[in-house]
TrEMBL record:
Protein name according to UniProt: Bacteriophage phiJL001 Gp84 C-terminal domain-containing protein
Domain of life, source organism: Bacteria
Transmembrane stretches, start-end: none
Species this protein is from: Sphingomonas rosea
NCBIfam families per UniProt: phg_TIGR02218
Residue span(s) of domain Bacteriophage phiJL001 Gp84 C-terminal: 179-255
One Pfam family per UniProt: Phage_phiJL001_Gp84_N
InterPro entries: Phage_phiJL001_Gp84, Phage_phiJL001_Gp84_C
Length: 263
């Protein structure tokens, strides 16, 4: 609360967090203007905020208390909140102007007892857009996004876990090669809602990039989605989508441009 003459102005921070799987919540925390401290009203506290219009220098750190079902220790330790989107707004409760302070993405969350802490990645405005289109021999689109246009609804399959050995998962059926570089989403069990990357298919089994964060038991269900290696042959032969290929495989590379006669 801030007192100026006969006017009393109260401010608060409004927080909005959304996980990659779509779950999220909104809360508020009071601002104590006399001490420049930040209250725990919503279970979140701002530790540091530094914004810079230059290429580097922006930083945001958040601390929280595990005091509600919205943020549980199990979910944080399972890394469900890693890379969650965050929006921080300043609210004038006396009816004055309001505005967004910053938007970003949570980094890896560190849990310490009944509190947690995370840094937030804030993209400076100068990095919000690329000044030119990048080129690469591989496709720059993500399979299924607007640039790609492939409908993934027909390229998903539900399976049940038969056995887990580290990053290797065996299912109740053989998994075909087109699921290499795809994704899995856990639909039941302790890992429900967690997405993971597929790095390879070996003998009909899936190899994940990382081991499931929580215990996996036979019978747990997953949804697996096909992947793409970004090559023109895959785009044309597997997905019949070469018209939307977003790469330049025939563009000369740097080494070719630097050659000289006799080289």
């Amino acid at each position: 609360m801030r007192v100026s003459g006969d006017a009393v102005t109260a401010f608060r921070f409004d927080w909005s967090l959304q996980r990659p799987d779509g779950a999220g919540f909104a809360t508020s925390s009071d601002i104590q203007a006399d001490t420049l401290g930040h209250g725990w009203a919503g279970g979140l506290r701002l530790l540091e905020l530094r914004q810079n219009e230059e290429i580097v220098g922006s930083a945001l750190k958040v601390e929280g208390i595990l005091q509600s079902n919205a943020l549980t220790k199990a979910d944080l330790e399972a890394r469900r909140w890693d890379h969650a989107s965050l929006k921080l707004a300043l609210k004038d409760t006396s009816g004055g102007s309001n505005g967004t302070v910053c938007m970003g993405e949570l980094g890896q969350v560190a849990v310490r007892g009944q509190t947690f802490e995370s840094s937030v990645s804030i993209a400076p405005r100068k990095l919000a857009s690329s000044p030119c289109v990048l080129t690469a021999p591989e496709c720059r689109a993500v399979l299924g996004d607007k640039r790609c246009g492939v409908d993934l609804r027909t390229r998903r399959m539900r399976v049940a876990v038969a056995h887990q050995d580290g990053v290797r998962l065996t299912f109740d059926r053989t998994i075909e090669a087109q699921y290499r570089f795809g994704r899995v989403r856990w639909l039941s069990g302790a890992n429900t809602g967690i997405d993971q990357d597929i790095v390879d298919i070996i003998d009909g089994n899936i190899l994940l990039r990382e081991q499931p964060p929580l215990e996996c038991i036979p019978g747990d269900h997953l949804e697996i989605t096909q992947g793409c290696d970004g090559q023109p042959a895959t785009c044309g032969d597997i997905f019949s989508n070469i018209a939307n290929f977003r790469g330049e495989p025939n563009l000369p590379h740097t080494d070719a441009l630097m050659r000289y006669p006799g080289a």
